[in-house]
Design brief:
The chain is mainly beta. It has helices spanning about 10-20, 85-90, 200-210; strands at about 20-25, 30-35, 50-55, 60, 75, 85, 100, 120, 140-145, 165, 185-190, 240-245, 250-255, 260, 265-270, 275-285, 295-300, 305, 310, 320, 330-335. This is Ig-like domain-containing protein.
């Protein structure tokens, strides 16, 4: 009995479970339907079964599958209240082409480095917060990860030969191009809280070049407007103000006061790890002539300037945002004294 799954489950249990199932054939594919039978034990299979439907049962933890499950080509486990499925269990499904694990309670899942034949994988409507490492699934063509809680996409974790990728309705805010996905034909990233920064527009440009979607089908959030802060100062104080720019390629930057470019005062420029540029203006000693509205400009050859207006004494921020068609320069107000 050591080679049988029933070493941990009485034989009568799996047999009873199987008796509640129906055997049929579709297009010469021997199939077994055990859906909605209130099962809590994985049933044994009839002979020669290659398609198994276990949907709408209850298998919270799956450590192993019965041995003959390795002969399956299609396995449905949707709506089974699954919270955990072990790597060993998944590796044993060496011949499964279509695997449906949607509408469960999975928070994590790992496939290891088994010899998988998977071509279609449905993980939608779970509770995944991080993209699982699917890079070893080289046969995978259709992947559905929609309606999870995924925060970020690590490109190296994507299956290299995927043709259809669904990431809709997650918590993704940033994406970059994936030029290595040369077979990709369908992409759905709708209903994510994207931020309209420059890397996102690089992603959009890449996706549009492959005719995966149109720009106007990708709603996103403009950079949040900074709260207006009132700062009381006295003459003779120093004053520093900064604007944060995300742009590709790097734009021309300058500060302006009373329609004059401030090239003769102290300007500093710093590149952050995120790729954003912090562009600061420092006034060493404030005098009457320094009062008024200051503007931080960022401009490239393919985008109109954007301004951030600030009053030195009573900080008032009036942000002029470029239209969505101007993707190359996005300004982010940061902190101002």
């Amino acid at each position: 009995l050591r080679e049988q799954y029933i070493t941990t489950i009485p034989a009568t249990t799996t047999e009873v479970a199987r008796r509640s199932c129906k055997r049929f054939s579709i297009s010469n594919r021997p199939s077994q339907d055990c859906s909605s039978q209130d099962l809590s034990v994985l049933p044994a299979l009839f002979n020669d079964i290659i398609s198994l439907n276990l949907a709408n049962n209850s298998f919270p933890i799956i450590e192993r599958f019965p041995n003959n499950y390795s002969n399956l080509h299609t396995l449905r486990l949707d709506k089974c209240a699954i919270e955990k499925i072990s790597v060993q269990a998944l590796i044993s499904l060496s011949n499964v082409r279509v695997l449906d694990l949607s509408r469960n309670r999975l928070r994590t899942i790992a496939f290891g480095r088994g010899n998988f034949a998977l071509t279609t994988l449905n993980l939608s409507h779970n509770s995944l917060r991080y993209l699982p490492d699917l890079s070893g699934l080289r046969s995978l063509r259709v992947l559905d990860l929609s309606n999870n809680e995924i925060l970020t996409v690590i490109p190296d974790y994507l299956p290299p030969n995927v043709e259809s990728l669904r990431l809709a309705a997650n918590n993704i805010t940033h994406l970059g191009p994936w030029p290595f996905l040369t077979r990709l034909q369908e992409l759905d990233v709708s209903f994510n809280p994207f931020e309209c920064d420059c890397p996102l527009w690089e992603f959009v440009g890449w996706a549009e070049s492959l005719a995966l979607f149109q720009e106007d089908t990708l709603p996103c959030q403009r950079p949040k407007t900074a709260k207006v802060e009132k700062t009381m100062i006295t003459f003779g104080q120093s004053h520093r103000m900064c604007c944060l720019i995300s742009a590709h390629p790097k734009p021309t930057l300058w500060w302006q006061h009373k329609l004059k470019n401030l090239s003769a005062v102290r300007l500093t420029e710093k590149l952050h790890d995120s790729g954003r540029i912090e562009f600061c203006l420092k006034i060493s000693r404030i005098d009457v002539v320094d009062l008024g509205v200051y503007r931080c400009y960022s401009c490239s050859t393919v985008s109109v300037p954007m301004t951030l207006d600030k009053s030195v004494i009573d900080l008032r921020l009036m942000e002029k945002i470029c239209p969505l068609s101007n993707h190359n320069v996005i300004s982010f107000p940061r902190s101002f004294i």
